[in-house]
Amino acid sequence: MNIICIGGGPAGLYFALLMKQQDPAHRVVVVERNRPFDTFGWGVVLSDQTLDNLRQADPTSGALIADALNHWDDIEVFLRGRSVRSGGHGFCGIGRKHLLNILQERCLQVGVELVFEKDVADDQALATEYQADLVIACDGLNSRIRTRYADVFQPDIDNRQCRFVWLGTHKTFDAFTFAFEQTEHGWFQAHAYKFDDKTSTFIVETPQEVWEAHGLQHMEPEQSVAFCERLFARYLGGHALINNATHLRGSANWIRFPRVMCKTWVHQLDLPHGRVPVVLMGDAAHTAHFSIGSGTKLALEDAIDLARTFGAAGENPDMQVVLQQYEDRRSVEVLKIQNAARNSTEWFENVTRYTDMPIEQFTYSLLTRSQRISHENLRLRDAQWLGGFEAWMARHLPRPDGSDTPDDAAPAADAAPVAGAGAAPPMLLPLQVRGVRLKNRIVVSPMATYSAVDGVVQDFHLVHLGARALGGAALVMVEMTSPTPEGRITPGCTGLWNDTQEAGLRRIVDFVHGQSSALIGLQLGHSGPKGSTQVGWEIGDEPLPADGPHANWPLLAASAVAYGAQNQTPAAMTRADMEQMRDAFVASTRRAMAAGFDWLELHCAHGYLLASFISPLTNRRDDDYGGQGSAGLENRCRFPLEVFRAMRAVWPQDKPMGVRISAHDWVDGGNDADDAVQIARLFKQAGCDLIDVSSGQTTRDARPVYGRMYQTPFADRIRNEVGIRTMAVGAITQADQVNSIIAAGRADLCAIARPHLADPAWTLHETAALQSPDVAWPRQYWAGRDQMYREVGKLQQAGAAGGAVAAADAAAKAQGF
Ligand SMILES: Cc1cc2nc3c(=O)[nH]c(=O)nc-3n(C[C@H](O)[C@H](O)[C@H](O)COP(=O)(O)OP(=O)(O)OC[C@H]3O[C@@H](n4cnc5c(N)ncnc54)[C@H](O)[C@@H]3O)c2cc1C
Ligand SMILES: Cc1cc2nc3c(=O)[nH]c(=O)nc-3n(C[C@H](O)[C@H](O)[C@H](O)COP(=O)(O)O)c2cc1C
Predict the structure, then answer these.
(1) Which pLDDT value is given to residue 549?
(2) Could you give the C-alpha distances from 9 to 102, 331, 519, in angstroms and in order?
(3) Where does ligand 1 bind, in terms of residues with CB under 6 Å?
């Protein structure tokens, strides 16, 4: 085969080397516009796993790269004159030049032809000149070839919000260093690490507006480097910052990171000598933000994959099949890393959300920013540091405004009989809201059970909610309960408009208070346009069957917008309807008070009545209660706020009241995360104590992006931008996830829904898996508790549980840091 690689970066050189080594009969040419020993950039980071891949693919260069690598274990974070250092992160760095030189020499050894100082303007002419059978477009992130065939590759390029510059220094950092410095215009951050005996990479990054406010766009490169030197002088120990990119073609100084992804990676050229595929590889095909250090890894692993696929295909490979396999496999891998990279990019772009946190929590948030590295991963990396952090959390219980309440944690009175090594894990720390103290951070999320009769709770509810109150969660939420008969979702939903309903609920509240250490909350909500539907195990959200025992009842909503073609069209509420509705909510609030509930939540999510006001997709009003776009948001929130305020006015001052919102409609033209911040701000001003952050279900067109903890980033943003407590919910299934959410300050509480349907004692069982003594079991169950702790302990000693955490940690490391 005649192969041409356009671009002599890691992707092109490594692919050339592997193909030539695999079959010396191939003619392989690498064409590079720069000189052989001339390249931009400083160090690059490789994980241990990537190194193993390199050793396997080509032991000779693998050994040379391994020898040249600088290992480090520690990450050190500097903020406001303090620093925190943790270990066990295990990465290694190598100079980019050194890496390229190793690959260039190795290419020459095996017979690859290297052509330098040739800037390829026309890939087709080059392919014709060399009579190429295969063209690899490995010409970097600004790929000319990708641009030329953009209609085929369909690149999606997202230029991110920050500006960054890739510098070097002879200050040798002994840890991977993240330094944050504030100026009069905003924050700058440096990502620095040593990659050989005398040099470190030093990347400086700042939001575009801060960069502009400092006039950096008008400065010569030397001036802007001098600016960075002054700003980060305290970390540089008198050493200079060095820019080695100014003289190179195609290099840039301060750039905005382009996140690149391509719909397809292969294009067929029709050339005089035949059909020739051109294939994207490395940064030309995809990029991953430098803050997770995976760009070079991806480029090298692309090369390994394609070379192996050719190797496995034998003498006369079916080019199309080979290239399709490469694209299919690699695009999945890339997507995983780009997901982790997106969270990391956004964390750095929005660092001001976190800079008011104490550095202990700030560091934890930074380390877990991609949501790939969990609490137990951190324990595996540095148990001593994590133990110290847990003790700090337990002493300080940091709040969303960055303040803390020292020494507020109390050990559980009837704790499990295990010799606890340290402080309670974050999920088991108490939370004080107004006069209410939750014993830990776990909430049984409100879940409709469709088992009420005429809105009255039954024995089922007593046993169902009672079991969950005994199961270790701090707060058990009763399902959405309606203030009016028509406000129920289904005929099986609970209501609170009469004495019988109130008495039924009081019986459950009394049980929870008398027999458990949990507290109990009520979620009040009206179904609006999604009412009069079948129960959950029939067809959810479908109208009642015409011939069933229950007739459909008329619906109310913000506007006459049906939830779906099959649903009834609701009547748009008049002002009189609104007043009546507000009063009904207030009457139910008084009943909730009389029933003895500890916590009240107003349901403003999921497309129900109050949500139908908030979303522009369902609110088409042109009065004071409607309005499109972000400008109309305040109007759309007016009625839900009116209801909230009226309820808050009668709800006891010492008891908390929260609101559940849909933080994203997941459809164009709907509310998004920016709107959610504004909605939360309005409820905060109205006296709301906590935002319960859900999303979607406001329209049938919604296309949510699911994944573990997928709604938690909204809770994080609202908590840390608005300064209000949040409850995270949605696909949180493990204590490990709850611990990292609470510890990082992404939320103050975690609501667990479906796992509590499977296991009423979810909190007790998850805590047993952690072998933590910091939870109280009902005394009737102590014998079961002791056995469970013993059995889990034995399993863990046998290595089973630790193995899973170690495997997850290895996977996280393989995806960057
Ligand atoms: C600030 C910064 C920090 C980074 N840090 C890391 C890190 O820590 N770890 C990591 O793994 N990655 C890091 N990366 C990313 C990494 O540099 C790239 O992902 C990696 O180099 C991709 O390799 P590549 O071969 O695809 O592209 P490149 O390395 O960009 O190579 C492309 C080559 O093609 C040449 N070329 C382009 N056009 C032409 C043309 N028309 N004719 C001839 N030659 C051409 C270029 O001169 C260049 O040599 C970082 C990137 C940046 C910007
Ligand atoms: C059977 C069922 C009923 C639900 N009923 C309600 C409800 O009454 N009120 C509410 O706000 N959310 C309700 N939800 C949503 C959950 O509270 C929760 O937000 C969602 O299930 C995501 O959490 P999970 O991934 O832990 O299940 C319900 C969910 C389920 C599975």
Answers:
(1) 83
(2) 12, 20, 60
(3) 6-12, 31-34, 41, 44-45, 119-120, 138-140, 144, 164, 166, 203, 250, 282-284, 290, 293-297, 299
